[in-house]
Design goal:
Strand content: 15-25%
Structural class: alpha+beta
Shape: globular
Number of strands: 27
Helix content: 10-25%
Bound molecules: zinc ion
Number of domains: 4
Radius of gyration: 25 Å
Largest sheet: 12 strands, mixed
Distance between the termini: 49 Å
């Protein structure tokens, strides 16, 4: 179901040699400027004028720290993230896997610096491949006999050097050394793009995965706005507020003279008051083709996207010819607009929730949000949804987009847009990608890939958080009292993942292969499915909200580890949301996450200038125990006010 395409994309990734990532990094956790100056390895450039790290000169060049992002939270705390680079005659080269977050209080004082850095910088290979040749070489590797031998097929049927994205030279960890490697995107003639990591000496492909499959699909944009209506997909869900298209189930839509009389409107919500993003709902238009070849199989089969046509007054969803509630009437009624209405409605709720949490849209800048209702995804057993942030240089709907696929006729699921936690999960990926952006480039082999596991786990938590903020209590459809993910997509009571159910050796969801939710570090071997492993964060969120012990503690023998005080679903969710936004570096792992969360909890929630002082000791203890309950202990003592 959801996020499935990401999984497939990872299956498509491959490697000829393994990179032993992060073998020689060390963790840094300090809380004073002088300690930070002493700890940092390398000079600081544009990081903080008062942080004076020692110069570090290697045989190849100088090591420097450069700022990569900065944000200010609601309390006025500043968060600056920096990475190590090698300063070489040809330019600065990022040392991949280094990142430290420096966190300043409202008074400007450093409160914590947390992250990982490298201490030795021996480059084990030569920089033989020049940047101007990288795309040619990578394209040959991905289309040639070497690719065929390894994969049984060529990664790309053909390749074209579009050059829209220059190759980036990195120093990546390899055992106790570093190696030069290029990160480069190789495109075929139809715009499909493969993100590739290639050794700068041996020319071996170290990593390759789809990054943009939809480059050639371009919709038109709307002109004027009028009102139109969407309806819920589920007949058992009330849909109030027809009157208010912004707050209810309805759609705001665009009138265009070209539309037929049945579908005179297009789905679009414009931003207003500069405090909301523009939202667009697109529909794939014929010819429909298979996943991954939709826009690139042959030049004769170019589908595109159009803004979704919505009926002026479409009424309730009905059972169509397939004997289920369907968004499409094959007998001639055409598209109904229910999935589009739900998608827009729930995207709106997600944005509102993020706004309440202090974030301006998914990206922090009210960036536009797009949803595509896919007409055909025939290789998929059920409805799926996934987030894809294609390059800004590709055509629309390039850029941040949630794709929702149609379920097949015999599906036990509705469209994924029937479920708020599903839609919020996908936009949660947008939050993650524009903040911590957990590293996946060196996830070789890609299973298990910790960065992807953490991404799925946090996206699930944010999905649950938004659902609990915007849906009423209760255990029926579109209510919020459960701890299950994507339960509203199901027609027969199934769930995809869950923070408080022990599914033993696995459970079925729709027609997908079995999911096997992991509730603890030792709950079985690492599975191929990153969502299963990411489910451990759903357990953390549940325990941090409600208190208590791991739902599977009897079989895990850890019922003695309990969260003493639940913080409530909002308090726990906001704490995890803030931890991600402001404290987690891209290099976070399951092992280091509890330490970051603990530091973040004190920084974000202590009140040391009040009387009496508040150390947030209760929150720190709950965070500590919630992670301990999934098998990740932090040995740090609780932090206290000075
Ligand atoms: Zn996901």
């Amino acid at each position: 179901m959801k996020k499935r395409v990401q999984f497939l994309a990872l299956v498509a990734a491959f490697a000829w040699i393994a990179v032993n990532a992060f073998a020689q990094t060390e963790s840094v956790a300090v809380s004073s400027r002088s300690a930070l100056s002493a700890a940092l390895v390398g000079s600081t450039i544009n990081v903080d004028g008062d942080v004076a790290a020692a110069r570090q000169v290697t045989p190849g060049g100088e090591v420097i720290w450069k700022k990569v992002r900065e944000s200010i939270d609601n309390a006025g705390h500043r968060h600056v993230f920096a990475r190590q680079y090698l300063r070489l005659p040809g330019g600065d080269v990022e040392i991949f896997g280094s990142e430290i977050g420096m966190h300043y209080g409202a008074d400007g004082k450093l409160s914590a610096a947390l992250g990982t850095q490298f201490r030795s910088f021996h480059i084990a290979n030569k920089l033989r491949l020049s940047s101007s040749d990288v795309q040619q070489v990578a394209a040959a590797k991905l289309t040639g006999g070497l690719s065929k031998r390894s994969l049984g097929r060529a990664m790309l049927p053909s390749a074209e050097i579009t050059g829209h994205k220059p190759a980036v030279l990195l120093a990546i960890p390899s055992g106790n050394d570093l190696r030069f490697a290029y990160q480069v995107a190789v495109s075929d003639e139809n715009g499909r793009s493969i993100e590739t990591l290639i050794d700068a000496d041996s020319e071996a492909i170290l990593h390759a995965s789809d990054s943009a499959q939809f480059g050639n699909c371009g919709p038109s944009l709307p002109k004027t706005m009028v009102g139109a209506f969407g309806t819920p997909q589920r007949s058992d869900v009330p849909h109030p507020a027809y009157q208010n298209p912004y707050l209810g189930r309805g759609l705001a839509a665009n009138a265009t003279s070209e539309r037929g009389t049945d579908f005179p409107y297009e789905a679009f919500v414009p931003g207003y008051w500069n405090t909301s993003p523009d939202m667009y709902i697109f529909q794939e238009i014929p010819p429909y083709t298979n996943l991954g070849f939709r826009c690139d199989s042959t030049r004769l089969e170019y589908p595109g996207y159009t803004l979704f046509p919505v009926k002026a007054d479409s009424g309730y969803a009905q059972a169509w010819g397939y004997g289920r509630f369907d968004d499409y009437d094959p007998t001639g009624g055409g598209w109904h607009g229910s999935a589009a209405g739900d998608a827009l409605h729930k995207t709106w709720q997600t944005v509102s929730a993020f706004s309440d949490l202090g974030r301006h849209g998914f990206d922090g800048y009210w960036g536009p949000m797009q949803v595509v209702i896919d007409a055909s995804m025939i290789s998929f057993p059920d409805s799926t949804a996934y987030f894809w942030n294609t390059s800004a240089t590709t055509q629309n709907p390039g850029g941040p987009t949630v794709y929702i696929t149609t379920p097949p006729y015999n599906s036990t699921l509705y469209y994924s847009s029937a479920s708020l936690d599903q839609i919020a999960h996908e936009w949660g990926h947008g939050v993650i990608n524009s903040t911590a952006g957990f590293s996946t480039t060196t996830c070789v082999p890609h299973t298990p890939c910790v960065g992807t596991q953490l991404s799925e786990g946090f996206a699930d938590v944010f999905g649950q958080l938004v659902e609990k903020m915007y849906e009423p209590l209760g255990s029926g459809p579109e209510t919020s009292s459960d701890w299950d993910l994507a339960e509203d997509v199901s027609k027969i009571g199934q769930y995809a993942f869950s923070g408080n159910r022990d599914d033993g050796s696995g459970h079925y969801y729709g027609n997908f292969p079995m999911f096997d939710n992991k509730l603890h570090r030792l709950d079985g071997a690492d599975p191929a499915n990153d969502h299963d492993r990411g489910n451990m964060l759903n357990v953390v969120y549940y325990l941090l909200s409600e208190g208590g012990a791991n739902p599977a503690c009897t079989r895990l023998y850890n019922c003695g580890t309990t969260v003493p005080t639940g913080l409530g679903s909002y308090g726990a969710g906001k704490l995890l949301f803030d931890t991600l936004q402001f404290y987690l570096p891209s290099t976070t792992t399951w092992d280091t996450l509890p330490n970051y969360a603990n530091f973040a909890t004190f920084d974000l929630y202590s009140r040391c200038s009040t009387t009496p002082k508040y150390d947030a000791a209760d929150k720190q203890e709950s965070v500590r125990k919630a992670f301990e309950a999934i098998g990740y202990a932090t040995t740090n003592a609780n932090r206290t006010c000075p």
